[in-house]
Amino acid sequence: MSITNEKANVQMLSASTDNEQSLNQTNQSITSIDDGVNISNEETLDWEKEMYKMSLPSYMHTMSMSEIYDTVYQTKQPIIENLLYGGVYILAGAPKLGKSFLVAEIGYHVSRGIPIWGYKTNKCTVLYLALEDNYSRLQTRLYRLFGTDCTDNLFFSTSANQLACGLDKQLKGFIEEHKDTKLIIIDTLQKIRECGGESYSYSNDYEIISKLKDFADEHGICILLVHHTRKQQADDRFEMISGTTGILGSADGAFLLQKDKRYGLNATLDVVGRDIQDQRIHLIKDEDTLRWNFDKSEAELWKEPPDPILEAVAGLANWKGSPTELVDKLGLDIKPNVLTFKLNINAGRLQNEYGIIYKNTRPHTGRLIELSTA
After folding, report:
1. Burial class (CB in 10 A: 0-12, 13-18, 19+), 309
2. Which of these, 367, 358, 364, 361, lies nearest to 318 by C-alpha position?
3. d(CA 281, CA 5)
């Protein structure tokens, strides 16, 4: 009997039980059919079984802790180290506080790859949607901030579609034209969100940010959204962000800009996020250029202590071999699978701190580790 016929039988079996079979029953059924079939490729058969399981309404994908450790995940590369990474971030503050000047500074520094407030940036193309401005006002603002020191990697637009009306297609088109785009600034969130009766419900807020986050994650970029705060004070400053908690709940991080006095020059920038340490940065506005200059920070950034094993591995650039061979090469008293877990988990650190690209594959000859320079 052919494999194709067996697949058809399996589908008929599934339909006859109204897709309510348990995974255990499915395994038994497929096994009984497979008993009469001579399959030479066991891996193909396992894959077909898994595909059938995934077609069932009761299927839920799970991974064991060991499987998670045995996987190398792509790490988020920083846009601004210790401050801004891939995903969606909110920058909120009261109206006319200087948020647009602040994000213009961020975009300018990132587009040129120069530090901002002592934080290292990774140079890339930046798109700034200044949806509450026109090009004349932008020219005046940018000249006051940066003089005639221009950059070709910072792009502006004063109009864009709403999120439900094709904004994603516009952003995708820009990214396809400018392959090194890593930061998109949208000023403001209100200009791109859909209008409707549920504009400020938790589910609607969460869905809007989630859509933007899905887009950012798919394209490996950061989207920085400018937003407003409410007048009401709150014990948690971030609860002052306009809208429901669904906005902050679905975002990867947030910045909250607040002045000590409305007409003063001193301000604080509170920072929270999934991939960054909570921080409070004190800023002072320059009266002439209107730049936000660094004053001090209340949080000392935590740094991971040196790791002797990672340092030893970093010395083996352009090397390949099995985990056992790597253990022998380094002269370590550690099991090969434990070393593999450690390197899988620290692949991002190897690249960011040591400039080593780590790959872990499993060809037919067995597990293979490759180390190369970034």
Report:
1. middle
2. 358
3. 66
| Burial of residue 147 (number of CB atoms within 10 Å: 0-12, 13-18, 19+) | exposed
> Phi first, then psi: what are they for 197, rounded to 5°?
-65, -25
Q: Please give the single-letter amino acid code of residue 210.
A: S
3-state secondary structure 104-171: HHHHHHHHHCCCECCECECCCEEEEEECCCCHHHHHHHHHHHHCCCCCCCEEEECCCCCHHHCHHHHH
- The pLDDT value given to residue 357: 93
Q: What's the predicted TM-score (pTM) here?
A: 0.79
pLDDT at 322: 95
Give, in degrees to the nearest 5, the angle at Cα 84 between 280 and 238.
Answer: 45
Residue with tokens 């020059």: 265
C-alpha to C-alpha distances, 193 to 48, 199, 289, nearest whole angstrom = 43, 8, 32
| CA distances from residue 300 to 41, 280, 281, 323 in whole angstroms, order as listed | 56, 10, 11, 37
Distance in angstroms (rounded) separating the CA atoms of residues 216 and 77: 13
Task: Show the tokens assigned to 67.
Answer: 């499987």
Q: Which of 178, 175, 183, 181 is nearest to 116 (CA)?
A: 183
Other CB atoms within a 10 A radius of the CB of residue 28 amount to: 12
- Asked if residues 122 and 182 have their Cβ atoms less than 8 Å apart, the reply is yes
| Residue labelled with tokens 């450790």 | 69
> What distance in Å separates the CA atoms of residue 93 and residue 257, rounded to the nearest whole number?
5
* 88, burial (CB in 10 Å: exposed 0-12, middle 13-18, buried 19+): buried
Whole-angstrom Cα distance, residue 353 to residue 331?
A: 23
Distance CA 158, CA 279 (A): 32
What is residue 53's three-state secondary structure? helix
What is the pairing mode between strands 87-93 and 222-228? parallel
Positions of the chain with pLDDT lower than 50, given as ranges: 1-40, 197-198
Helix extents (H) in the chain: 3-16, 23-34, 42-54, 65-69, 99-112, 135-146, 167-177, 202-219, 245-250, 308-314, 323-330, 336-345, 347-354
